Amino acid sequence: MNAVISTDSLCRAFHGRLAVDTLNLTVEPGTFYGFLGPNGAGKSTTIKMLTGLLAPTSGSIRVLGCDMLDPKQSLEAKRQIGVIPENLALFDNLTATDYLTFIGRIHGLERDEIRKRSSELLSLLSLDRETKKLTIDYSHGMRKKLSLAAALLSNPKLLFLDEPFEGVDAVASLVIRDLLLQFTQRGATVFLTSHVLEIVQRLCTHVGVIVSGKLVLQNSMQEILESGSLEKKFIEVAGTENGSAATLDWLDATETSARTSQTGSQVAIVGPTTLETEKTNGGDATL
Q: What 3-state class would DSSP assign to 210?
């Protein structure tokens, strides 16, 4: 079975620094793939290269069997994918309905089919009462949901989702999770980045971890969970070198008191939360 996504020695440099370093990814059809890493590890840069938004410095990329470095083949792949990019990239002066109509026409859908699918998606994502509002007036969570609707509209074979649950309320998050599981159950593939490890563990069938641009782990979720939780494995491969917790001495709650003296008055702060005041000059010193 041919991989849906495969990269060979993929690199991307910015100002002489490698943001993605010799990345070798393999994602099989029907996989729910979680692509994890600390902030600045290279996740969003990788997605931009996989979707043709950013050219690599070196290496090769194949998506849905198409060479993403070949303009004609890249265009063919883009017809079959949906994307929630890092910055969402909505048109602020369009309504949700207008925006989805625009996306649908780009994908060659008939207007009646666009109206049908848009109505279903907006209703499912609780945006059906906001169809006349310009997207510039949407909250971050609403913009995220509209971006997902646009990504799903063409019924793609492959979804790239960069932090799809960020800023989304709990109810909508549950709806999105069910929707994505249904999407993969019909044989489509999801490539997801998220910092919410609980969601990744619940949804994903496979995981890759990138640290400082290098892929340090690529395995099935089943094998990862055999040795503990996803969080434990992630910290093991991506955490601090000594594994110790960071501390701030000046936030130590055991420090007993801080005192400030003023002429004719005194205020004492005892412990982290208790305030004591002393009467001076016939009045109360208050905070």
A: strand
Quickly list DSSP for 45-112.
HHHHHHTTSS--SEEEEEETTEETTSHHHHHHHHTTEEEE-TT----TTSBHHHHHHHHHHHTT--HH
Distance of CA 83 to the CA centre of its chain: 12
Predicted confidence at residue 133, as pLDDT, reads: 92
Find the helix or strand (DSSP H, E) in which 274 lies.
Answer: strand 274-277
Q: What tokens appear for 65 in the block?
A: 């069997």
Which amino acid belongs to residue 225? L
Residues of the chain with pLDDT under 70: 1, 240-246, 252-287
216-222: long-range contacts, CB 8 A cutoff, minimum separation 24: 218/25, 218/26, 221/34
Strand 274-277 with 283-284, pairing: unpaired
Closest CA to 68 of 151, 5, 159, 20: 5
Query: In the chain, what is the straight-line distance between the N-terminal and C-terminal CA atoms, in Å?
Result: 70
Strands (DSSP E) found in 37-128: 58-63, 66-67, 81-84
State the Cα–Cα distance between residues 67 and 14, nearest whole angstrom: 23
Distance CA 146, CA 152 (A): 10
Q: Is the pTM of the predicted complex or chain greater than 0.85?
A: no
CA 172 to chain centre: 15
| Pair 49, 19: CB distance under 8 Å | no
Element (H, E) at 206: strand 206-211
Question: Nearest Cα to 100, choosing from 78, 89, 115?
Answer: 115
Distance CA 254, CA 21 (A): 45
Cβ 112 vs Cβ 53: under 8 Å:
no
